Structures are given as C-alpha cells and as structure tokens.
Amino acid sequence: MTLPHDRTHRANCMARKPIKWTQAMIDFLTEHYPLKGKMWCADAMGLKEHQIRTKASALKLSARGKSEAWFEERKRHSERLTGRKRPEQAAVMKKAIHEKGLHIQNRDAISKSRKEWYKTNPHPKGMLGKKHTEKTKQIFSMRSKQTWENYSEEQIRNKIDKQIRTQHERGSFSKRQKTTWKCGEREIGNKIFFFRSSWEANYARYLELKKTFGEILDWQFEGKRFFGENQWKGTCYLPDFEVTLTDGCVEFHEVKGWMDDRSLKKIQMMRDCYPDLKLVVIGSKEYTLIRNRYQALIHDWEQT
C-alpha cells in the first residue's frame, strides 16, 4: 500500500530529476541569462527556476547589476523598506546632521579612532598589513566599469543627481585648501542655491537682474546634465547655467575663472556631441566686463 505522503515524495523526486542540457540550451542560457534573468529564461525554456539557477551557477553566469529583473527586484526591495525605519531615530539623526554638522565635526575623530583600533585589533576582513594584487585590482576595475556600462542614461543621471543632492543636503562639499573660492548657499530670486564660488553667485545675480529687466525669460542653475557619445562616452558635463532668452531659445553658460584640462575636455565634448546647442563660456575677461557694469546695480554683489 502506498501512502499519500509517499506519493508526494516520489512526485517531488521525479520533478527534480536532472535534465539533459544540450549545447543549444546552454548557448541560449548563456546569451539571455545575464540580461533577462532566471524567471525570463525559465518561462522561455519551459523549465523550473531552480533548474535555471543551478545551471547558471555551474556556468558562472551572473545577472547581478545587469538584468532588468535584477533592477526590478532592487526597486521592489527598496519600496518594501520604505517607512520601516523608526521615525524617532530618523528625526534625531537628521537634526544632528543638518543642525550640528555631526558627520563633518566627527569625521577626523572617527578616522583617528579607527586607525588606533586597527593597530591593536584584527582587521574585520583579515586584510591588516595586506594589499590587493594587481590582478584583483583589475578585476575590481573591470566589474565597476561593467556596472556603469550596463546602466542606462537615465539611471546614470539619477545616480549622479542623488549623490549631488545628498552632498548638498548634508553640507559635505569640502572646500579646497589655499583657494579664494567661497562655496556655500545663497538666496537669489527667493530661491536657495549652492554655489561653488562667488563668481557663480554673482553671475546668478546678474542673470536675475536681466530677468527682472525683461532681457531674458528665465534661468536655472545646473539645470541639465549632458553625457558624451562615441569617443566621449563616459564623459559627463553639467553646465553652470541654463538661460532661456526672450525668443524662447536656450543657451548654456559656463563660468570659468581658470581653465584646466578636465574642463577643456568637457567643453569640447559638449560642442562635439551637441553642436546645435549654444554654449557660452564666461572667462575672466567677460566676468570683469559684467562686474564693472552691473555690480553697482546689485546690492549684494560679492567682492573677490
């Protein structure tokens, strides 16, 4: 007599019987698994998810950071965590960071404390006194490049914008040593902006004055980001100002007190990849002309 649970156990064993993988099936999985994920491959091949997962693992295939399914799962996981953080703790930490500058004031102390701890305690990952080999560094570099290459333009833009917003909110932009630049927040046109220099702030005041006089329709600070193509792939450029003229045409203005190689490459990328857009570079000569003409009309003009 066969008991019901015996039949169930036998059915499960039959269901998990190893399948015979043909070369065509392996080729199909190798091509589609990294970009489509296990669920898509399982549906397309008429197999179970665990069969796809097991074979992909044996072939050392990975969909992490590549497939649409992976990104969708990350998104769902993020949504599941939304609101689960204790509100009291979040409020306390936000107040400590934004009002007291906790993360900035204690940064050096935390670094010093960690270094002292590592001198007398084992490294948490067993790397005390060790260094990565050149091969390992190349693997890290390759994986990092692959991750960014698999991001869409929108994903890259959102990632960079999030980093910039976080730095602005936390006030973690660090000033360069031995510089006359004055980075910080300014209120212009009833809006708060974070400028990296007094030149940028003064130019924003100049644009606001032109807007008041009706010489331009509007202006935005760091309104749009541009990404290079072809030989410029991987280059990202964020012009300082997006200016809308009275006829509706749009120009992009870049304030540059001095020009280094990095800035020159970004400007050249902009002109090569976006030839139909007008880019106006405000150098020291142009800035001096604006200062001499308009600083008397702008009460909060900053002297440099």
Task: Give the topology.
Blueprint lengths: L3 H12 L7 H14 L1 H8 L3 H10 L9 H14 L5 H14 L1 H4 L1 H14 L13 H17 L2 H18 L13 E5 L2 E5 L2 H15 L3 E6 L4 E2 L8 E2 L3 E5 L4 E6 L5 H13 L4 E5 L1 H11 L10
Parallel strand pairs: 7-8
Antiparallel strand pairs: 1-2, 3-6, 4-5, 6-7
How would you sum up this structure, described in words?
By secondary structure, the protein is an alpha+beta fold. The protein has helices at residues 4-15, 23-36, 38-45, 49-58, 68-81, 87-100, 102-105, 107-120, 134-150, 153-170, 198-212, 261-273, 284-294; strands at residues 184-188, 191-195, 216-221, 226-227, 236-237, 241-245, 250-255, 278-282. Helix 2 (23-36) packs antiparallel against helix 3, helix 3 (38-45) crosses helix 4 and helix 11 (198-212) packs across helix 13.
Number of helices: 13
Distance between the termini: 96 Å
Sheet with the most strands, sense and barrel status? 4 strands, mixed
Structural class: alpha+beta
Mean of pLDDT: 77
- How would the global form be characterised? extended
Quote the CATH topology of the domain at 185-297. Answer: Trna Endonuclease, Chain: A, domain 1
Identify the CATH class of the domain at 185-297.
Alpha Beta
Order of helices and strands: HHHHHHHHHHEEHEEEEEHEH
| Residue fraction in strands | 5-15%
Cα Rg: 28 Å
The helical percent reads 40-55%
* Strand segment tally: 8
Low-confidence stretches: 1-5, 7-15, 175-180
Output the strand order for the largest sheet.
Answer: 3-6-7-8
Q: Architecture of the domain at 185-297, CATH level 2?
A: 3-Layer(aba) Sandwich
